[in-house]
Specification:
about 240 residues
Amino acid sequence: MGQSNGKASGEAFREGYPLKAKEDPSATANLDFYQGARRCQPNKLTIDELHEQWWGAYELLEREHGYIQWIFPIQEDGMNSQAQMLMVHERDAIRADPACAARFVQSYRLFLDFMGFELVSVETGEVARAVHFAERFANIRSHGHNNLRITRLLKCQAEFGFERFQAPLVRCLAKEIFETSLLSPCSDSLANWWLHVIMDDAARDSMIQYCTDHDCAPMDDSGPPAEPGPIQAAS
């Protein structure tokens, strides 16, 4: 994310990265991984192995960073030099493959569980607290680089055709930020980053108004503060 303007970054994302470099048709690492034909690096796991072996392994999911770019690839570089930026042709192939879609949902469930949430409905994207939310929320509060991971996740949802997942997650996070204050340290990331990558205009406008009503309006075009920086390769 660096020091870039969150609103401008979100707009560029929603517009399909108009300044992105030319596609590389030979780059297929993300598609191969989601089809189960490649192991992520540096952890050397297939996606199914990662889902099975790392479920509930909270210290591991917190400590390791390279896997995030593999389970949530986007059309931006990250900190893991052994991962590949998502290509449009990969995105389109993943969207068209039901097995890849199912694996993405499982990736999402894995990371929601890590955060202290659970997916209530695949159809609507409804998210709720998990039974172990208290300890997991404490982890989010104390490890700011997870804000970067959430931004990446929200972008990947749209890339893979799960735009319906975006607003329910952001609403759930916003409730814990403003109504319970359990995730209050995340308020800047919500207002200046997460809101702006929601693809649905009405949902995005609604969430911006919600933040404004809670005295946390998004920054103007002079630019928000950078999100808390990653440790090694958080994004």
